[in-house]
TrEMBL record:
<keyword id="KW-0548">Nucleotidyltransferase</keyword>
<keyword id="KW-0812">Transmembrane</keyword>
<keyword id="KW-0443">Lipid metabolism</keyword>
<dbReference type="InterPro" id="IPR000374">
    <property type="entry name" value="PC_trans"/>
</dbReference>
<dbReference type="Pfam" id="PF01148">
    <property type="entry name" value="CTP_transf_1"/>
</dbReference>
<dbReference type="GO" id="GO:0004605">
    <property type="term" value="F:phosphatidate cytidylyltransferase activity"/>
</dbReference>
<keyword id="KW-1208">Phospholipid metabolism</keyword>
<protein>
    <recommendedName>
        <fullName>Phosphatidate cytidylyltransferase</fullName>
        <ecNumber>2.7.7.41</ecNumber>
    </recommendedName>
</protein>
<keyword id="KW-1003">Cell membrane</keyword>
<keyword id="KW-0444">Lipid biosynthesis</keyword>
<feature type="transmembrane region" description="Helical">
    <location>
        <begin position="114"/>
        <end position="132"/>
    </location>
</feature>
<comment type="pathway">
    <text>Lipid metabolism.</text>
</comment>
<comment type="similarity">
    <text>Belongs to the CDS family.</text>
</comment>
<feature type="transmembrane region" description="Helical">
    <location>
        <begin position="88"/>
        <end position="109"/>
    </location>
</feature>
<feature type="transmembrane region" description="Helical">
    <location>
        <begin position="62"/>
        <end position="82"/>
    </location>
</feature>
<feature type="transmembrane region" description="Helical">
    <location>
        <begin position="138"/>
        <end position="157"/>
    </location>
</feature>
<keyword id="KW-0594">Phospholipid biosynthesis</keyword>
């Protein structure tokens, strides 16, 4: 009995490892190769994330999540190639075209319309953020900051514990882990500053990016809890859905686009 229970606990280890290796290989190759391959991968990921998100809110009719997933990919393509408008300018055509799917979703869904618009727009902005960062040093640093925030938060939460951050939505997250995530991200930002990657002002905003990543994780968990599912889909064996793997990245990348746009307006004025 014990051996059966023990083996069942590790039953998903092989698919999890194989899926992780496959995802890391595709991501690594796309970053190394860059260009249209990288853009195509981001466009595909955003389309899948939108499909999963709409499917969580309203699984039937089946065509609706599929159609909006394809529309999300198409909107991001239009945003990338629409014009030569500066990427930091709010209300430019390449930003406004990202509103198409959130608005359509809010109009077509029978419920959760505000959630569909707000989180759907976040997904689209995150796609633009990943495209803007491109397969280069900035993207690597961005990923490292989110990973560092997650690792620091995990260990601080386990070792220090304490008051829960948002117990009704995320019972495992603590304030100690949340703050440790900010500190870890800031420390990595300081290292980037010493390497000439960031300005002092950008380093100050890095904890906000880390916090946005944490909130991306929490919000997606809240959505799944609201609709009563464990994973956003079963696309990735052992890992759940694409949205499950990109929730923190979506929150952080979407916030990065908004902060960049606000900064461009402030400094332009």
């Amino acid at each position: 009995m014990n051996s059966e229970t023990s083996s069942s606990k590790w039953a998903d280890l092989a698919p999890r490892l194989l899926s992780a290796i496959a995802m890391a290989s595709v991501a690594g190759f796309s970053i190394w190769y860059g260009g249209s391959f990288y853009q195509a991968l981001i466009i595909l990921v955003i389309g899948l994330c939108m499909w999963e998100f709409i499917r969580l809110l309203q699984p039937a009719p089946l065509w609706l999540p599929v159609a909006l997933g394809f529309a999300a990919s198409g909107s991001l393509v239009l945003s990338v190639f629409w014009s030569q408008a500066a990427p930091g300018i709010l209300f430019s055509p390449k930003i406004l075209v990202l509103l198409i799917v959130p608005v359509l979703g809010a109009a077509l869904l029978a419920q959760h319309r505000l959630l569909c618009f707000s989180y759907g727009l976040l997904i689209m902005l995150a796609g633009l953020g990943f495209i803007a960062m491109g397969p280069g040093p900035l993207l690597i640093w961005f990923i490292l900051i989110i990973v560092m925030s997650d690792i620091a938060g995990y260990f601080a939460g386990r070792l220090i514990g304490g008051k829960k951050f948002w117990p009704r939505v995320s019972p495992k997250k603590t304030w100690s882990g949340t703050i440790a995530g900010w500190i870890g991200a800031l420390a990595l930002g300081v290292i980037g500053l010493s390497q000439g990657m960031f300005s002092p002002l950008e380093v100050i905003f890095i904890p906000l990016i880390a916090f946005a990543g944490q909130m991306g994780d929490i919000v997606q968990s809240a959505i799944k809890r609201m609709v009563g599912v464990k994973d956003s889909s079963q696309l990735i064996p052992g890992h759940g859905g694409v949205l499950d793997r990109f929730d923190a990245m979506i929150g952080a990348a979407g916030a990065l686009v908004v902060l960049s746009a606000i900064g461009s307006l402030i400094f332009a004025g």
